[in-house]
Specification:
The chain is α+β, with helices and mostly antiparallel strands. The protein has a six-stranded antiparallel beta sheet, with helices on both faces. A two-stranded antiparallel sheet has the order 1-2. The longest helix has 31 residues. It is built from nine helices and ten strands.
Length: 254
């Protein structure tokens, strides 16, 4: 049986106690309930408060759950709702384009793939749900960086590593390119992340018109491009898919 980390178990016990009992609890109540010394419990609470998971009332000194937990919970719900709303539309996009379709969200200075629809042919393919893609070289990453201020800050603090000879490694040039992405409403990656592979992505927004993810079509350069130009029908299909998912998330017409 795998060993667990005791400090994390204790922190989880504190959070569950605060979530299931009274709205606010004092140090003595918490230490007694989880069976730890006051000094140990105080150390846990201090760390949780520093991370925003717990807040201490300035007057009573009692503790309650912090706003960071709400943010994390909303992120969890947003990702699951995003994926659920996108299932039908991404399937349609894969059939219409004949290519693989990816749904990505911002996660730890990268793009987390939360849904992947295989290219509709008989070729052998590997499911990439849970994989991470770079922000600075992928179409998904560029779209997120262009429309999401948090993603923009994350990518501008990254190292802009050269993944292929075509990867943009100059932060200034990358930032200038984002202005064009915002103006046209989509981004592309032509051999910047994988040799011989191209991608087109568009942003997905929620009812607040805030970006919550992006959808992309990815395939061999010779299929995504018509000679040296991205196929207009693919760009239109990706944007239509993004709009449809956004409308299902409450964004209305845009």
């Amino acid at each position: 049986m795998a060993r667990t980390i005791q400090s994390l178990e204790r922190a989880a016990a504190v959070l569950r106690l605060l979530a299931g009992g009274e709205r606010r609890l004092g140090l003595s109540d918490i230490s007694s309930a989880i069976g730890l010394a006051k000094a140990t419990t105080h150390g846990l609470l201090r760390t949780l408060a520093q991370e925003g998971f717990v807040e201490q009332d300035a007057i009573s000194g009692k503790y309650q759950l912090g706003a960071e937990l709400l943010r994390l919970g909303n992120s969890y719900l947003d990702v699951h709702e995003l994926r659920a709303r996108a299932l039908v539309w991404t399937d349609d996009l894969a059939r219409a384009s004949g290519e693989s379709v990816y749904l990505g969200v911002l996660h730890k200075r990268g793009v987390l793939i939360v849904h992947h629809v295989f290219r509709p042919d008989d070729s052998r393919q590997v499911l990439e749900v849970g994989a991470m893609q770079p922000l600075h070289s992928t179409a998904l990453g560029k779209v997120l960086a262009a429309f999401d201020p948090v993603a923009h800050n994350e990518v501008m603090e990254s190292d802009f590593a050269a993944i292929t000879p075509l990867t943009t490694t100059d932060p200034g040039a990358f930032d200038e390119g984002l202005a064009e992405v915002r103006a046209r409403g989509w981004a592309s990656d032509i051999g910047e992340t994988w040799d011989g592979v191209a991608s087109v992505a568009a942003p997905i927004v929620d009812r607040r018109r805030m970006p919550v993810g992006a959808v992309a079509v990815t395939g061999a350069v010779e299929r995504i491009l018509d000679e040296e130009t991205l196929r207009p029908r693919l760009i239109a299909a990706v944007r239509d898919c993004a709009r449809s998912v956004s409308r299902d998330l409450g964004a209305g017409r845009f």
